[in-house]
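User: Sequence in, structure out. Go.
Assistant: Echoing your sequence, followed by the structure tokens.
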Amino acid sequence: MEKFRDEKLTAQERAEDLVDRLTTEEQAAQLIYDAPAVERLGIPAYNWWNEGLHGAARAGVATMFPQAIAMAAMFDQNAVKRAGEIVSTEQRAKHNEFAKHGDRDIYKGLSIWSPNINIFRDPRWGRGQETYGEDPFLTSELGKAFVNGLQGDDKEHLRTSACAKHFAVHSGPEAVRHSFDAKANAHDMEDTYLPAFRALVQDAKVESVMGAYNRVNGEGACASSVLQEKLKEWGFDGHFVSDFGALEDFHTNHGLTASAEETAASAIKSGCDLNAGRVYDKLIDALNARLISKEDIRKACVNVMRTRIRLGMLDQHTKYDDLPYSIVACREHKDLALEYARKSMVLLKNNGILPLDASKYQTIGVIGPNANSRAALEGNYCGTADRYITFLEGIQDAFDGRVLCAEGCHLYKDRVSNLARANDRLAEAETVAEQSDLVILCLGLDPYIEGEEGDAGNEFASGDKIDLRLPESQRLLVSKVMEKGKPVIIVAAVGSAINVEADCDAVIHAWYPGQSGGKALADILFGQVSPSGKLPVTFYEDADRLPAFEDYSMAGRTYRYTRDNILYPFGYGLTYSKTACSDLEVSGRKVTVKITNTGKTDTDDVVQFYLKDDSACAAPYPSLCGFVRVHLAAGETKTAETEIPEIAFTSVDENGVRAVRGKNYTLYAGTCQPDPLSEQLTGTACLSKTITL
């Protein structure tokens, strides 16, 4: 038996034996994402490209969870981990069957290019919906949970391989990402842009890391000596992959190299093992030109083959080979997608109208371009659900009275029908509003105009937002409906911050809530469950008052570095009840606090812990250092417990050196951030306690 088939050997030993049986040309061919079969050794073809951001994606039917930013709003590591488990088990089950039918195409493999752990530093970035928000700690914790869910805890094999992307300084603008140089100083690199990647590499043992399209401080992200040195420093033991077409940008857009051969040489010598693209077709040419050595190719090939062995692809049998296709989109998984949609929606405003007393209304008007939109449920990088429940459908199912509906306007154009005059759906919306006792306005964006350049199109800014306002067509709709004087609830389906600019009765931020988003919304509207999501990003009032989109300095951005221009703060979200924290206790790094539901409604809530360092290098405002989601029956008291991570006591100087510098720290605990606006909006204040080192 060949050594690479010997399951008693380590993955490294097996990979080296396998690679040494390949010719250099065969090795090079394995370093492109659609790797060919090596029939003489019984190695099947393999396509590395697969997506699973919030469900097994782009390969047919699968459970569709809320978009990543929505799952971040749950502030729940266990739920995010469970979502990762379901993505990976469904993907395994699909892979098992597809391979039996000879289908080894794109999106059918076991290497999942998720999660996206970039920091959502600017609300205009269309791909921010793929992230876990603006905070390095929250991103680290949820990213680790998702990776652990994807990869599993079996000591013999990975269930799927996860991928931390996009390493490392990447968050727009989309329109110039192929030529843009993201410049971040040493402080911001260590303080903001690198911590989540370090956490996933060191703590979650993520199997792969993907580079970004842009340059980082002058170097191409996919061939950055600085970034690759960080991976070595952290003990990374997986493989590195380029983003699709990112290496081509080196010689066509960035001007870093003069040819594809030079790009291939630069990338593989720096540590880029796998090419999503076609540049590595030139590896042999680069070898013949003496730009690289055979060992450069061999080393990269060992790294990628080691991952395939860890996935069990060369073994006789793994525990995952028997996962049945029947688990795909099964009832248990879809029930969790519904639960997570309920937990992720954020109640931003409520003058007392919610939850709705259905007996008070005979007719409800559901108006807006996202009212009956499936796209508004999906978010980008999604699969196909076996059933969708739109906002309109959820309300129709939940309400026994009359439900009138109107599209009201196009999502962003001035008319729905091309042959009609402008505002061709407005009269219908006004009529519905006039004849309804209550109006639910379903507004926002969708992943066809907010998302990745190329996927989202170029309606505004290649998938980015030009501002934080609703599209003009929707602003006109809002004003006309508000003029009718009826109670109005706005439901915003958006993957990011937005200002609806309306003095309505209630606002629910629904994100892109997944296949059962309409039922989840109806359950919240009619009080079947209490809303409990918290904002993982700051909602600003006006984009014009933000730093320039291209400015990667953290000054003036996110809750840790500004309190200006804030509409709704990070960590904010209302429930239908009232909770109060008490008895904050600290013992070493262990922290406990009691939380009591003082209201009359059962609810989830999120206890949030923030730490303020008194050193000169620390962020100006308290930083999140722990969170615990709890469910409380009316009148119930529970104890929330967490451990403050050691990194929370450190600060970063201007040279990017992280160290413990503070002596006195203030620890805060509550159900919101310890800032005046949060306390004003929630009517609650955080507890605090001084910790002296």
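User: And one key feature?
Assistant: The chain is about 30% helix and 20% strand.
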